[in-house]
Amino acid sequence: MNFRRALMLVGVMGGLAGCATSPEDRTANHEVAVPEAWEALGEGELAATEEGVATGWLVTFQDPVLESLVLEALVHNRDLQIAAARIEAARAGARVAGADLYPTLGANLGASRQKTNQFGGGVPIQPITFDNYNIGLSSTWELDVWGRVRDGRSAAIGELEATEADYEAARLSLAAQVARLWFDYIEIEAQLELAEERLQTFESNELLVQRQFERGLSSALDYRLIRSQTLSARSLLEQNRINRDIIVRTLETVLGRYPANQIETVEQLPTIEGAVPVGLPSRLLNRRPDIRSAERRLSAAEREVSATKKLRLPTFSLTATGGTASNELEDVVDPDFSVWSLAGNVTAPIFQGGRIQGQVDQREALYEQQIYRYENTLLTAFREVENALATEAYLRNQEQHLAGAAEESIRAEELAWDRYQRGLVGIITVIESQRRSFDAQTNLLTVSKARLQNRVDLHLALGGDFLDPLDSETTTAEVDADQISEPLVSNG
User: pTM of the prediction?
Assistant: First the structure.
């Protein structure tokens, strides 16, 4: 089916429905064409298991150690803690943006002494000294007639919601990073074990060839070649040890631990339980936090444009003061000496040298950037899912082929060594068969790990497991109102 013919228009529908102060979505007219289903998932290509899909994507790997490591990272990872601190900063910014909706109230207490000179009519200069004491309250309030302040507060709340979505994206990304590093660790340990076994085999073969060489039954060339193979195996073993230490210390850092190279591993890579179910809807991307974040920032940018345009409109404000004032300190607390004032003010810009228009142009340009950033986020999300789905099938087939190749190469290695000992083939044949056997087993481990990591990438691209949110038994009443959001991606 032609991709473009299968495209359907995507609209963004609504911000966070549970938060009345969130900026309304303004992206319905900015659409990205997407397919109703995934192109890379061929019809009937990967069937769902009878037991259904997992309720949590980590369950796919049936690895309790991995789950415990992920939980540890979510508590102690420093980058995640930085992301959490950004939420607090954004929340404070939202409070600051909404403060102008309310009157300001201040208290004042003052005392002054003033000297003046009185003269005239031939009277000598008479100095006069005045004391003045006052205490009172003052309040100012800008009436948000046009909604400019409300727009600013709404934009700040949109940025807060985007920051919260960024935090959720960081949590998901961190879990995926831990899983990849864990699989890297298990694989490099298996590679180390394989390299050690190969080295022992090569050393045994070298010893046998050396004895034959010393008795004149093998040539110097055979001995040099087999010794070169042994030295190369030792070098590869040291390189694997370096890689193992780097992976372990990186994982420890991600977990928030000191990089002491002290994590224990398991014996073998886990197996993937279940296949990718057929018919995954594209609306699964609704839950991707990076898409929610991009949508929230787009809506916030629209509110910023609205607030900036309203700078052209008149501003209405009220000012009130009240208190007491007297020349005598003891009279300051006497209500008979009370004073007050109430004033209204209207100001409107007439000429600003193009400042306001420049601010509007700037905000509109930033809004346009957010439009393209949002659309690019959507396209990137679909690309990541399509790639992961396609790679799933390729790696599965590749693993099957390599498993067969590894088995055949091991048999060939055994035959080559047997024939060499009987003088039927040269040492080159033995070395080549051993190299192919080692490469096949090494590649099989690498591809098995790649399958696991690709499944991690698929869950990361989908924003979670394979469950359709519309099929979930969770009702709206069971979810916190601040966490409810309308679909960001629609299939028409």
Answer: 0.78
